[in-house]
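Protein: Class I SAM-dependent methyltransferase
Species: Winogradskyella flava
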Amino acid sequence: MEDNTNYFDVNKDTWNKKVAIHAQSEMYNMEAFKAGETSLMPYELRALGDVSGKSLLHLQCHFGQDTLSWSRMGAQCVGVDLSDEGVKLARELNQELNLDAEFVCCNVLDTSQHVTKTFDIVYTSYGTIGWLPDLKPWAKMISERLKVGGAFYIVEFHPILWMFDYVDGQPEMKYHYNQEDVIYDEYEGTYADQSSKMVSKEYGWNHGLSEVVNALIEAGLQVEYLNEYDESPYDVFPDLIQLENGMYKMKDQLFPMLFEIKALKV
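Structure follows.
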């Protein structure tokens, strides 16, 4: 098995640097969040519905806004993230907002070594699986952390989007849909603040839909649905047009921007 420690270390350093920038960004709108606005988007709210009294594990939670939004809705939440700066800020927000979420700093693939309880819901969203070299251990961990009858839910950018290189502004198709080789990117700025002078150094991997679905099935989960959507809730790709409903689309939309999967542990 390939040792990806160096890749993870570089990514962790980049995410640690992103935390302070993102916390001050318009995209994360910390003031509105602290005042009670949810950071959750329509897809996940619709998929998971009433979470009151349910236990929820949020994988790759960044600095915890979504975790804490679920917590405000009555879920008993644990958030996991690679970045110690992210987890530190999440814990501070949790205390400031007088919520009862817990946060654990670890590589998401090692979650079962740090979190031993099982959950009604395991949840992850928007820009998560591309940081993982292999989805089989990820799916196995999800199955381990779910109660029987529990649900896993992911909403994520569509793999077609990651076939393009966006560094020079003009999307250029460069990578395989299911590329196994690691992809290295180095650029100035971050998706939440493109004017930032921080240098993002990132290692990632492309995973096609069949890989995601088959990893979950192999881990013993039963896929309830797979949906694809043309709209994105975030303006994080070049030349998107905002719609009346606040979502974003491409000018000439030829492929989906999002997919969502709900799977059950039976």
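Remarks: DSSP finds eight helices and 13 strands in the chain.
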